[in-house]
Amino acid sequence: MAGRNPAYRMTTRPQHLFSVDVEDYFQVSAFEAIAPIATWDRFPTRVDTNTRRLLDLLAKHDARATFFTLGWVAERFPELVRDIARAGHEVASHSFWHRRVTTLTAEAFREDLRRSKAVLEAVTGEAITGYRAPSFSIVPGVEWAWEILVEEGFTYDSSAFPIVRPGYGNPGAPRDPYVIPTPSGPLHQYPLATASFGSMRLPGAGGGYLRMLPPALLHRAVREAAARGAPAMCYIHPWEIDPEQPRLAAGWLTRVRHYSGLATALPRLDALLASAAFTSVRDYRTSHAVAA
């Protein structure tokens, strides 16, 4: 796998990356058995309200973000997606149906990409060039997805989580942005932030790790990236700041992972955004003259 490209080295004030995976609480992969796609329209939606709360928080800190958005959400809430773009944020793809890439054939993956890209571009009037797989599911053994992304007009991906974890860990990936060569052209990769403890890498990017682990871990990951001259990629889901969301009848481990720390996520996120400068992948690439 290619190492970090020198073009990503920061030469000014450290600027990091913030991202939002725009999906509703019932669309989480861990709930797919109890909330299958065919039932989604039966659930009360909360993604519009919660995403707008994140827009307000980002505006408070004059921060920009990349909103990796489900095509399903964009079809039902086009004004939300337009407001994300109007606020100066980047809209990117999080797939259409939130199906893990590991469950798809190459043909099904391509079809989902095309549908997602088409609806997001129709809503925003802008080219969609970034992608993040549901549950970070472009993992070892699914590298064929990278070439398809390039073929379908994407220039970067942010699905690599360089940690050891069942389901989505990609421990062989570099910690900092790098370029993946494919037969159809290069694909830039923006991996999720990690903190190091000796030879171990711990997840320090956000999400459930922001809610359930000590906040110092996430701040450490950001500081370590800055010390390496690289941007830290952080993330959150709109449902993670919503302690009032409906509770689904999942197994105990899923309930612990999904519902723990919902009440503390917003103040912790507030503190993170106050601690450093954050921007979108699109604006970072522009300001650092990263070639497509």
Overview of this protein structure:
- This protein is of the alpha/beta class and 292 residues long.
- Helices cover 35% and strands 15% of the residues.
- The protein is built from 10 helices and 11 strands.
- Strands 1, 2, 3, 10 and 11 form a 5-stranded parallel beta sheet that branches. The protein has a 4-stranded mixed beta sheet with strand order 4-5-7-6, with helices on one face. The protein has a two-stranded antiparallel ribbon with strand order 8-9.
- The chain starts with 14 loop residues before the first strand and ends in a 5-residue tail after the last helix.
- The N terminus is likely disordered.
Topology:
Layout: E1 15-22, H1 47-60, E2 66-69, H2 71-76, H3 78-86, E3 90-93, H4 106-124, E4 130-131, H5 144-151, E5 156-157, E6 178-182, E7 185-189, E8 194-197, E9 200-203, H6 208-212, H7 215-227, E10 233-236, H8 252-259, H9 262-275, E11 277-279, H10 281-287
Parallel strand pairs: 1-2, 1-10, 1-11, 2-3, 4-5, 5-7
Antiparallel strand pairs: 6-7, 8-9
Helix pairs in contact: 4-5
